[in-house]
Design a protein that fits this description.
By secondary structure, this protein is mainly α. Helices cover 80% and strands 0% of the residues. Helix 1 packs antiparallel against helix 2 and helix 1 packs parallel to helix 3. The N and C termini lie far apart (79 Å). The N terminus and C terminus are likely disordered.
């Protein structure tokens, strides 16, 4: 069956379909870009937690405060990482937002444990600092 649609209407119809396709492509592109940004923000959080733990471990093992530089640098930027992650998830589902809150809560616990082991090491309690880390109560690092 052949549709007899005047050329002007056909052109308008084609333009409408084309606009719909372009809108869908743009939305897909934005969604992909947003997801990519969220993945980057999550990776930044993980990287900075690892940097903190690396610095903490180096300090615990050696007592050399220069090993704390990665810890200090990462500690100063991780709050910004979480703020960027929260902003990226602002229009996402409640489930995704709750995952971010869980991640942030666990990261804060980890940071508190690292700070505790660092303090113990600074106070001369090297064995206690290692035991705290070995007990799984926190990161096994200090300073």
């Amino acid at each position: 069956m052949r549709l007899d649609v005047p050329p002007v209407s056909t052109g308008c119809w084609r333009n409408e379909v084309l606009l719909d396709v372009l809108r869908t492509d743009a939305e897909d592109c934005c969604a992909h870009s947003e997801s990519s940004t969220i993945q980057t923000n999550t990776s930044d959080v993980l990287k900075h937690l690892i940097d903190m733990e690396t610095g903490q471990r180096g300090y615990l093992l050696t007592g050399d405060c220069s090993y704390l530089q990665p810890y200090t640098d990462a500690k100063s930027t991780i709050a910004t990482d979480f703020a960027a992650l929260r902003a990226g998830l602002a229009h996402r589902t409640e489930h995704e937002l709750s995952l971010e809150l869980q991640l942030e809560s666990l990261a804060k616990l980890k940071q508190a444990e690292m700070e505790r082991t660092i303090s113990l090491r600074e106070e001369g309690y090297r064995r206690r600092a290692f035991k705290l880390g070995d007990a799984g109560e926190g990161t096994d690092g200090d300073c």
